[in-house]
Amino acid sequence: MTRNIIKTIVRILAQLVVAGPVIVFAPYAFAFGISLIISLFTGEAFSFGASKFLFFGLGWIGIIGLYGSIFIPIKIIQKRRWLRGIIVSCIVCGFIADVAPFFDMGGSLDADWFIIWFFLGPLIVGAWNLARIYRAKPPQQPQPPPAAT
Predict the structure, then answer these.
(1) Collapsing DSSP states into helix, strand and coil, what is residue 96?
(2) What is the pLDDT of residues 34-59, one digit of tens each?
(3) Looking at the domain assignment, is residue 90 inside a domain?
(4) Distance (Å, rounded) from C-alpha 50 to C-alpha 31?
(5) Which of 59, 113, 122, 127, by CA, is between 20 and 30 Å from 68?
């Protein structure tokens, strides 16, 4: 029992380190993402450009999926189909948001280690957790005892 708890704590800490600095920008992503949703109704949503709209508009949803997949136990995600759908959809939104800025760069990546960590870390953790969600066996229902003959 304690071995599983230690393993879970190590996994969570490792994923938080790999996901890295994206959590620092989460409040900004939430504020800007929600304002972009509002701008959809005013017609100004794409005035910043499509890649920035995808980055900020889907980034906050991706952060919810990323940290939900880190902290919610895998058995709960697997047991509830609706929760699994929400978490997976949010992670996919995060993937889209993560690669969207690279479409404006024209193929050149002039970045330092922090920028690489900022973009690559959430992709790694998201893929790691998608693999955990779909690789692990769903909880089995207890089998009734065989009928006495």
Answers:
(1) helix
(2) 777 777 787 776 666 667 777 777 88
(3) yes
(4) 18
(5) 113
Answer whether residue 145 is part of any domain.
no
Amino acid at 66: L
CB 37 within 8 A of CB 46: no
Q: Which residue range is the domain that position 89 belongs to?
A: 2-135
Cα separation, 1 vs 105, in Å, equals 49
Provide the residue type at 141 as one letter: Q
Place of tokens 């959590």: 23
Provide the b/e sequence for 4-19 (b: ≥16 CB within 10 Å): eeeeeeeeeeebeebb
- Please check whether residue 40 lies inside any domain of the structure: yes
pTM (2 d.p.): 0.79
Q: 93 with 54: CB under 8 angstroms?
A: no
Contact 20, 124 (CB under 8 A): no
Q: Does some domain include residue 123?
A: yes
Domain count, the chain: 1
